[in-house]
Design a protein that fits this description.
15 strands, 3-stranded mixed sheet, Hect, E3 ligase catalytic domain fold, 485 residues, Rossmann fold, alpha/beta
């Protein structure tokens, strides 16, 4: 009789030498040799026998069905065929065996299925399939319990998200830490999108251009929606606080969400068009957004007058750029005054820096206390000194407080991240703003506009400007040439 031998393992079973593909194949070859079977085909593959989608096994099944003569289909054990008693592949092969179209041989189990088997042997085969399914179900339950325990402890049971990496500590325990390079990239993605100057597509393109990192639009969108970066992991739709260091603040994550909701409200016709002032200009008369349109090779901006007709004008993009460029010229601080201003600011804010340092010390100390408390809580849990419910209650409370402290530290750092350096940056920016505005790429121009201007409106063909702080003050003193104040 001709024979087909089939060896199968799952990924986990590869680690077991006695159950490996070579070991199974060797047993099946010896069996066929002892029986006098001629092996016409050998199949060896890595695939779960529990899932419904079994592409590799379906190809083997097709080959078996194509055989015109009686053939012995040999497995090492029944669970090599399937771990799912409801698998239609099992019933297909079983019926063919009972009709003497094939014979099923399970070498290590000592079972042969053909038309001559007794009721007891049929029952034994059913029991073998049931035990195989029970084994898989038990493993699945154990894995779920392990995952649930990890989640309660604030541990992520899967591959770390972009910007983090999985590591193994010296004691063999697993941990997730920042990836030194990718964590900075992930942070930039959030900051770029929160600025409102970049779409998901332009971020994807910028990553490729500036850092040679290929992340498609869908991946970037999912990254921006993942709260893991600010302290919350989501597993099968349920949120859990995690124990790892936050990459961004909750405020930045919320800002990204606001920007995304705002983008989703834009009409599809204009949402992706590459216009510099798209979404940045409003009509002085009715307050509606100014719409960009291309006509005869030129870009024009105009009010849609959707709230009622008024004397709205169409304004060329070059005209708007020229007027805004003039404003940037007017906020240039003369070089000879910058040092005097910085010196005065440094003296004035020495007291603020002292307060900042004290606040930072208090928050840092509390952060260490929370970390120590979490470690002690975990030890109490391992010793059985506290119940699961008490552990979860205090763990959640400490994690929430820790996230709040992180948020305050982040806000304090952002607000006071060396006031003197920040002031110097603003003054230097004002000095170079005009050149930057004219020479930058479109996304950088939009970001600069959002940084400097609070409101941009069009009154007829005139651009009206309201600057953000502190640029409004610089503009005021630049116009009066009174830098002493």
């Amino acid at each position: 009789m001709n024979a087909i031998i089939i060896s199968r393992v799952s990924t986990e079973e590869q680690k077991e030498a006695g159950n490996s593909l070579p070991a199974q194949t060797a047993r099946l070859e010896r069996y066929c040799q002892n029986k006098g079977f001629e092996i016409i085909k050998k199949f060896s593959f890595d695939e779960s026998a529990y899932k419904d989608n079994r592409a590799d096994f379906d190809k083997i099944l097709d080959y078996v069905i194509e055989q015109k003569e009686l053939v012995a289909v040999c497995f090492d054990k029944v669970d090599r065929l399937s771990r799912n008693i409801f698998d239609i592949r099992v019933s297909t092969l079983y019926e063919k065996a009972l009709n003497d179209q094939i014979e099923l041989h399970f070498v290590s189990d000592g079972q042969v299925i053909n038309s001559k088997i007794s009721a007891v042997e049929k029952f034994q085969f059913g029991i073998s399939l049931g035990l195989a399914k029970y084994y898989s179900d038990a493993i699945s339950d154990n894995v779920k319990r392990v995952y649930e325990q990890k989640l309660r402890l604030g541990q992520w049971p899967h591959k770390a998200p972009f910007g983090y990496k999985n590591i193994t500590l010296r004691d063999g325990k697993k941990d997730i830490v920042f990836d030194e390079f990718r964590s900075e990239i992930a942070k930039k993605i959030f900051e770029w999108y929160a600025s409102g100057a970049y779409s998901i597509l332009t971020i994807s393109q910028k990553l490729k251009k500036d850092y040679n990192i290929s992340l498609n639009k869908g991946y970037v969108a999912l990254l921006l929606e993942n709260p893991f970066y600010c302290g919350t992991m989501v597993w099968h739709g349920s949120p859990y606080p995690h124990k790892y260091q936050c990459l961004i603040s909750q405020e930045l994550f919320d800002k990204v969400r606001e920007v995304k909701l705002g983008h989703n409200k834009k009409h599809f016709k204009y949402a992706g068009k590459p216009y510099i002032y798209r979404g940045l200009l409003r009509c002085e008369h009715c307050g509606r957004s100014i719409t960009p349109e291309m006509h005869k090779g030129h870009i024009y901006y105009h009010c849609t007058q959707s709230n009622g007709k008024h004397d709205a004008k169409w304004v060329r993009e070059e005209v708007i750029t020229e007027e805004i460029g003039q404003f940037f010229k007017n906020i240039e601080v003369p070089g000879k005054h910058i040092e005097q201003i910085l010196s005065s600011l440094k003296e004035t804010h020495e007291g603020k820096m002292e307060f900042h340092n004290k606040q930072y010390a208090v928050l840092t100390s509390r952060k260490k206390e929370i970390t120590t408390s979490l470690d002690s809580l975990y030890l109490d849990k391992l010793k059985g000194s506290i119940t699961d419910s008490i552990y979860t209650k205090f763990f959640t409370h400490l994690k929430e407080e820790g996230a709040e402290v992180d948020s305050k530290l982040s806000a304090l750092q952002n607000a006071q991240d060396n006031y003197y350096i920040t002031a110097n940056y603003i003054l230097e920016l004002s000095k170079r703003a005009y050149k930057l505005f004219l020479s930058s790429e479109m996304e950088e121009r939009r970001q600069l506009l959002k940084l400097v201007f609070q409101n941009l409106t069009i009154d007829g063909k005139k651009v009206r400007i309201q600057a953000q702080k502190p640029f409004d003050t610089i503009f005021k003193y630049a116009n009066s040439l009174s830098w002493g104040g």
